[in-house]
Amino acid sequence: MTEGTQLIRGLEGVVAAQTKLCDLDGAHGRLAYGGYDIADLAKQATFEEVCYLLWRGELPTRGQYDQLVMSLVAARELPKPVVDALRLAPKAADPNRTFQAAIALLGAFDPDADDNSPAANHRKAVRLTAQLATLVAATHRIRNGAEPLAPALDLSHAANFLYMLTGTRAGGAAVKAFDASLTLYAEHELNASTFTTRVITSTNSDMHSAVAGGHGALKGPLHGGAGEAVMRTLMEIGEVATVDAFAEKALAEKRRLMGFGHRVYTAGDPRAAILKGMAEEACRQSGQFKWYEMAVKLNERIHAAKKLIPNVDFYSAPLFYSLGIPVEQFTPVIAMSRIAGWTANIIEQHADNRLIRPRGDYTGPKRRAFTPMADRGQTGHVDTRR
Ligand code: CMC
Fold this sequence. Notes:
Elements: E1 22-25, E2 30-33, E3 36-37, H1 38-44, H2 47-56, H3 62-74, H4 80-86, H5 95-108, H6 118-143, H7 157-166, H8 172-185, H9 192-202, H10 207-218, H11 226-237, H12 243-252, H13 270-285, H14 289-306, H15 312-322, H16 330-351
Antiparallel strand pairs: 1-2, 2-3
Helix pairs in contact: 1-8, 2-16, 3-6, 5-6, 5-10, 6-7, 6-16, 7-8, 8-13, 8-15, 8-16, 9-10, 9-16, 10-16, 11-15, 12-14, 13-14, 13-15
The structure holds carboxymethyl coenzyme *A.
């Protein structure tokens, strides 16, 4: 690189956008959307209210709320060809792949697909938020040989999702816990997937393309895929009595411990603290308290040994599991929440866009003369291990 600037690995600490959406105070472990503390929103607001806040910058009045709820309910159905496309995926395929492909395909059926105006983007944000919930449930049912269920129009976003997933109407406590977890996952500044949506948006590409790309980033185990990995770790441990032995071995092997650590939070992830309480309650209610106990014990052991903090994905794992969400659907479920933040960031990026185009620091060979193929020798093989 000729223009001399410093290489910042992983873009740590780099400020890449101004935002009014989310105030992440890593040093004090605080998080607020549009000025409202995450704890207040999780306790007192519905996910639909949080969507409105992120998209419009203010909490809705009763009239605005009712209108948004009506629009979300009206957008729940998926186009039939998208449902048919879900049936083409191998049953054993990672549902994240089917989900991501279906998001891109939804763009082919959206009347505003190529319109990046604020009005069109708000319409698409509503449609995508409603459709992604239906998509997660439909993907799950189809890969398990069942027919997708039609959305229940009288239920809230959270309640309808649990119904479409399981076929039964969940109780009030389970719906409240799930609704609050949707709020806690809804937005988180320039995390990897949201940054991806902004990079794609910065080329003046469209919302569906940005969201599909965002999910590709989210599913990685260092990001949203960590929740699934946490649950698989707890399953690997199996019992509360074996947590200590697992922790000893994992620490000795210097394993990367899923659900621990964070790039920005140094004083703890405030979402994890709230989710911990919700997981305790949900695990108790569902008669699967051991997952909560194991998580607490593992957290204590890892914190004592390495001072690592549990992040949002640590306690959401036992919570989601005890709510009946299949482990392989954890990341799509996070996406059906983060869609609120992704779309809000896409709208914000369009409003003040400049192509995102950083530089690479070249470390390859110096300039050299081209060698024609005839002069490169006859033998040699490709080292396929590299
Ligand atoms: N297990 C073991 N060691 C860890 C962990 C962990 N989970 N996280 C950080 N460390 C250690 C790491 O080994 C390194 O130690 P050293 O300096 O001795 O080499 C030090 O802490 C710094 O780690 P890093 O990987 O350079 O930190 P980062 O800011 O690049 O990574 C992270 C942040 C979240 C990717 C990382 O903590 C991690 O891999 N955690 C596990 C995966 C996870 O839970 N991801 C979800 C993140 S929060 C929700 C979301 O973003 O979706």
